[in-house]
Amino acid sequence: MVFKGFIKKDFQTFKINGLDERMDAIRQRIQPKFQAIGDALIDDLSTTTGNDMHVHIAQHARRTVNPPNDTWMAFCHNKRGYKQHPHFQIGLFDDHLFIWLAFIYELPSKTEIAETFLDHIDEIDKTIPNNYVVSLDHTKKEATNIKDLDLKKSLERFQNVKKAEFLIGRHFASDDPLLKDSKAFLKEVKSTFETLTPIYKLSMREVIK
User: Fold this and answer.
1) Into how many domains does the chain fold?
2) Helix runs in the chain, H state only
3) Contacts by 54-61 with C-beta closer than 8 Å and gap 24+?
4) Which of 76, 153, 181, 183 can bridge 87 by disulfide, Cβ–Cβ 3.0-4.6 Å?
């Protein structure tokens, strides 16, 4: 399919009661759009990052009772999985869409990646635009504007706390007109990924050692 943007009904998916019912809606409404986004962006992202990237769409297979509060797709250099590697994400909660460069707690090299980030903190600080946000927990909606964040303290926590995470990128409210405009949205995602690629490449120094 051709990606035609996100609409109100996509976000209302997370108001549906019941695991099976919500998962059916995710599969029908959202996952085809994720696949179309992946098809549209994968070649450019591979070129930008210098790695062959692969699309992973969250299946929520481990859930047996509680329906997911969000869903997402990931772009990663590893074909088999993404959680143990630096990766890019696009996903939805009921009230916003997120675009992340994600470093989650399952990263085996997160201590080393955090050390690299701390060694290049001034460079990272200059790379991140003022309208970007940071999350320290991918399961929560909340994120902090980079202008209001103690970046050094956050990276030290990411380094020293086993379950700590570091995700950086953009939030867009569910009613943002950009999300309905497929061309404008894809352009914004590409721009965001390009902005974050220098940080991604810093992290990959530790992954490919």
Assistant:
1) 1
2) 8-12, 19-25, 31-49, 110-119, 121-127, 151-160, 182-207
3) 54/78, 54/79, 56/81, 56/82, 56/87, 57/31, 58/91, 60/23, 60/26
4) 76
Q: Is residue 1 part of a domain?
A: no
* Rounded Cα distance, 59 and 40, in Å: 21
Can you give the residue range of the structural domain that contains 195?
A: 8-207
| Counts of helices then strands in the chain (DSSP H, E) | 7, 7
Judge if pTM exceeds 0.90: yes
- The torsion angles phi and psi of 175, rounded to 5 degrees, stand at -100, 10
Q: Is residue 124 part of a domain?
A: yes
Task: Give the pLDDT confidence of 96-146 residue by residue, as tens digits.
Answer: 999 999 999 999 999 999 999 999 999 999 999 999 999 999 989 999 999
Whether 132 maps to a domain, the answer reads yes
For 135-144, how does the pLDDT look when each residue is reduced to its tens digit (9 = 90+)?
Answer: 999 989 999 9
In a domain, 3, yes or no: no
Distance CA 135, CA 33 (A): 24
